[in-house]
Amino acid sequence: xxxxxxxxxVAVAGALLISAxxxxxxxxxxxxxxxxxxxxxxxxxxxTLCHTADFADPTPAKDAALAGGTTLTDFFCPAAPPPPPPPxxxxTWVACTPEQIGPHEDRVRxxxxxxxxNPAGNKNGWMTLxxxxxxxxxxxxxAAMDANRExxxxxxxxxxxxxxxxxxxxxxxx
Length: 174
Hints:
The protein is of the alpha+beta class. It folds into 2 domains: 57 residues, no CATH class; 80 residues, CATH 2.40.50. The protein is built from 5 helices and 5 strands. It has a 5-stranded mixed barrel with strand order 1-2-3-5-4. Strand 4 and strand 5 form a beta hairpin.
């Protein structure tokens, strides 16, 4: 009789172990996520990264993990930080009073005065607005001029073909 009870207990314990491990079949996916996201480790052993209270429920995280590839990395991996500026290129901000702005050939030029540092080099206060964000900078400069406010100009030492420093960004405090 004792052997029967012991046999039943072993069978029940075995069934519980099989069902418990079967319920956690996604355990290796956390490792797959961490490998795909190296050096980041989004999976730290917390199953709620992919599961809700009912582990069988489908979730977007579980679907992404099972899909793998870019679906997995797009969902779990943190976005890469922006690359640093090229060596030797440093962005400098200066405060200036915008005095004059206008077209010059196919560019927009800005003349600044009363700067805490000279962003224009030897060009008598004139800079060129970088074409990539020229419209936004123009709007900010005109608003600052209307409000009779100083602007802050960012430049990085790059120049147009005529040697005028590019203004790469412009802001002002309203």
